[in-house]
Amino acid sequence: MNDDINKSTLNIVRTMKSALARDSVIAFIFGAIIYAAAEKIDIVNYLHRLGYSHQFYNMDSVINFLLSAFLVYTIFSFVRFLEMIRFFKVMLKISRYDYLTRVYNRRSLIELLEIEFTRNQRSSEGYFSFILFDIDDFKAINDNFGHSLGDLVLKTIGETLLKSVRKSDICGRFGGDEFAVILPYTNVDHAVIVAEKVREKISKLRFTSSKTTINVTLSIGAIEVKHGSPIDDFEKVIAEADKYLYQAKKQGKNKVCSSKNFNQDPQQNQ
Fold first, then answer.
1. Residue 51: is it exposed, middle or buried by C-beta count within 10 angstroms (0-12/13-18/19+)?
2. Helices and strands in the chain, H and E counts
3. Which of 14, 51, 103, 130 shows the smallest number of beta carbons within 10 Å?
């Protein structure tokens, strides 16, 4: 059970696809063998001879019944197979996306970040950017106005984030009120532009409850990861972006901090 839990959803998908392909090949091979055997012994004539030997002369009716039953079973099996595929797609979506914000959940986001980092390390010209942000004073929103308004804020930020990036970019909810974006083949200058666009859009939104109307702001950290950079592990990508997120908080919140703003390690600016 623990091994199944530790498997990534992508590996599970690959395993199930391989199993489906394997079962299809096995079914085809067995079908071909049965067909060849039936042709060799002339199964229809054999059944007739068998019937005549036992003075049963309605073998045609039996054969028609068996063919009809086989056809019905095949149709129902195919329908169930299609339903299984649809069910699998729904379960895959549930397992990979955050139910509230409709962006990737933490597990999927980390998997995809690891894949992007590995791809980047294989190419000498590879690079990508990573954005990490959270909602300023989000706990106060939940405490003062209730979790229903907090959920509305999270949901709206997820929707706004998806509309603000390219289809090739990967958006995810890192946890709680933290979100992240993976931007393939994007340098830090363009990552900052994207981050500023998201920050400005969110700051202009208004959220209304029975008590009041509020707006929210974001603190954002952005980094670029190049092939051969000191960031030699995908987990360090998150840690590095978190440093710049902390700098944004330290400088008064509602801002973007990145390696473009700091020519040295952000820890040295603390």
1. middle
2. 9, 7
3. 14
Bridge partners, 40 (sequence order): none
Distance between CA atoms of 113 and 233, rounded to whole angstroms? 10
What is the chain's pLDDT, residue by residue, as a tens digit (270 residues)?
344 444 566 666 667 777 777 877 887 787 788 778 777 777 767 776 777 777 666 777 777 777 788 788 888 888 887 887 788 777 778 888 999 999 999 999 999 999 999 988 888 788 999 999 999 999 999 998 889 999 999 999 999 999 999 999 999 999 999 999 999 999 999 999 999 999 999 999 999 887 788 999 999 999 999 988 888 888 999 999 999 999 999 999 999 999 876 644 444 444
For 171, the enclosing helix (H) or strand (E) is strand 170-175
CATH number of 106-269, picked from 3.30.70.270, 3.30.420.10, 3.30.70.660, 3.40.718.10: 3.30.70.270
| Ramachandran region, residue 212 (left: φ > 0; alpha: ψ -120 to 50; beta: rest) | beta
DSSP H/E element including 129: strand 127-135
DSSP codes of every residue in 75-96: HHHHHHHHHHHHHHHHHHHHHH
In contact, 106 and 175? CB cutoff 8 Å: yes
For β-strands 218-226 and 256-258, DSSP reports them as: parallel
End-to-end CA distance of the chain: 45
What is the DSSP code (8-state) at residue 269? G
Residues in the chain: 270
